[in-house]
Amino acid sequence: MYDVKSPKAEEFISHQEILDTLAYAEENKENRELLDQILAKAATFKGLNHREAAVLLECPLPEYKEKLFALAKDIKKAIYGDRIVLFAPLYLSNYCINGCVYCPYHSKNRDIKRKKLTQDQIKEEVIALEAMGHKRIVIESGEDPLNNPLEYILESIKTIYSIKNKNGEIRRVNVNIAACSVEDYKKLHDAGIGTYTLFQETYNKENYEALHPTGPKSDYAYHTEAMDRAMQGGIDDVGIGVLYGLEHYKYDFVGLLMHAEHLEAVFGVGPHTISVPRICSADDIDVDDFSNAVPDDVFEKIVALIRVSAPYAGMIMSTRETQEMRERGLALGISQISGGSRTSVGGYKEEEKPEDNSAQFDRSDTRTLDEIVDWLLELGYVPSFCTACYRAGRTGDRFMALAKSGQIHNCCQPNALMTLNEYIMDYGDEHTKEHGAKVIEAQLENIKNDLVKEKAKAYIAQMEDGKRDFRF
């Protein structure tokens, strides 16, 4: 039975409701009156429910795809402006006791190099990340209570926050680790994490169990209910996503939106971020072994539909995707991307040798952070290293209230420009500095609140004297 407020995974992600939704979408995919009503609702920035979004996903009519893409661009522009948040992953350990068949970290893989960073090595990696210009990272780790206990994660977070190198510092540590208990989520909250991220991989319970034959991750209910426990533990910024290609994309697309609706219904706030990874090759993983791989044109439609369905959620696209796909994704709703990433354990201080491969997946976009910053500037975006909302306590329902009222622009726009100015002064090459300075000057004039504009200009002027970390 489907119950959006139920605490049970199989009720708030109801298999029958997904099947009924897909049947409804098939029946109405060319119902122009309904399609127009759905697009009109989306244009109010109130989002769409899973059934409405599924109808648009199923619709084969080219003119409605064009309307959807145009609307996604408008919504993204209205809410996020030209800002694109940048971050990097830091893999702490690839020791793992799970048997996930799509991940090279699975316990039966005897070929991959197993690594775990010591606290001294973490310091070295953080210094390297700070030297690149990063201010926010997401830490990743395999699930292994012996090698990677929560105490190790907590100690690592403390280490990361403690490193200040020249003008560099990591101001926000997001965490992507296995499902935890409420008590453990409380410990993560107390450690000062930003967003807790956990990908569902697939919402199809039968397929989920086949893909996760062994290990603690094989417990579908415990995994799917993790975000509820995280919220109960005080973490009000959570990030969800599926790994497109494991299950038919239509099923997982509907399940993803149902999960977002559940969090909104129970806790009053939906996911802070939604990620859109696609299955890709890695150490002993061949993408051709997965028959549900999602083609580019469908993938673009998924991105646009998530944007119009969950307008205030940040959307993340990693270096799994090519430069070309990331550029298309940015236009359709992506608001956060990684840059200069390493998917190996460590690898920032010194890139690992091929024979020591510990990467979770192969990167398609291998550009440096500065190359990506300059690329974003060329495209007309404002690369942002802002962490102000998290540090000022504007998280969860407080952030959403500001976002939905439009007041968040008074914080986000100047904060983005100030962190971009920090970046170009401290880390950008000459071309990036010149280009970035012009963008900052032009974008400052777009700030509508005169008091905010003048204060931002004053803060930026003080940076010339060596001062840093201004925020609204």
Count every helix, treating DSSP H or I runs of 4 or more residues as helices: 20
What's the shape? Answer: globular
What is the strand content?
5-15%
How many DSSP E strands?
Answer: 11
From the alpha carbons, calculate the radius of gyration and give it in angstroms.
Answer: 21 Å
**Structure class:** alpha/beta
Distance between the termini: 46 Å
Unreliable sequence segments: none
Largest sheet: 9 strands, parallel
Overall pLDDT level: 94
What share of residues is helical? 40-55%
Textual characterization of the structure:
The protein is α/β, with parallel strands linked by helices and 472 residues long. It has a domain at 399-464. 48% of the residues lie in helices and 10% in strands. It contains 20 helices and eleven strands. It has helices at 9-12, 15-28, 32-42, 50-58, 62-80, 119-132, 150-162, 182-190, 205-211, 220-224, 226-232, 249-267, 296-309, 323-332, 369-378, 388-391, 396-405, 409-426, 430-444, 450-463; strands at residues 83-93, 136-141, 164-165, 168-169, 172-176, 196-197, 238-241, 273-275, 314-317, 336-338, 382-384. The strands form two sheets. Strands 1, 2, 5, 6, 7, 8, 9, 10 and 11 form a nine-stranded parallel beta sheet that branches. Helix 15 (369-378) packs across helix 19 (430-444) and helix 18 (409-426) packs parallel to helix 20 (450-463). The model has no long low-confidence stretch (mean pLDDT 94). Residues 275-383 form the Biotin and thiamin synthesis-associated domain. One of its GO terms (molecular function) is catalytic activity. Residues 348-363 have a biased composition (Basic and acidic residues). Its cofactor is [4Fe-4S] cluster.
